[in-house]
Amino acid sequence: MINIGHQQKRACILYDIATSHEYNNNTDKYFDNDKGDRNEYFTSAHPDAYKERKIEILLIKTEKLLKSFFNK
């Protein structure tokens, strides 16, 4: 058996999920690659992920951060 590193294993999982039709019905679900069983990879995200105001604040802060890097 080939021993692959943790990051390569995660990359293989993401590739499989992105290209396999098996996962087509998992739209809008949170992907947790720390789960051991592929059937448990998709769950609900943290409750804050569904709060519009929290999302708005995150987007504003992200935009400010990106501008600080790229508008020099």
- Catalogue the unreliable spans: none
Number of strands: 2
Question: What is the tally of helical segments?
Answer: 2
Largest sheet: 2 strands, antiparallel
Task: From the structure above, extract its key features.
about 70 residues; mainly alpha; two-stranded antiparallel ribbon; 2 helices; about 5% strand; extended
Question: How do the strands and helices of this protein lay out in sequence?
Answer:
Layout: H1 6-19, E1 30-31, E2 42-43, H2 52-70
Antiparallel strand pairs: 1-2
Word description of this protein:
The protein has 72 residues and is mainly α. Helix content is 46%, strand content 6%. It contains 2 helices and 2 strands; from the N terminus they run αββα. The chain starts with 5 loop residues before the first helix and ends with a helix.
Summary, kept brief:
With 72 residues, this protein is mainly α. It is 46% helix and 6% strand.
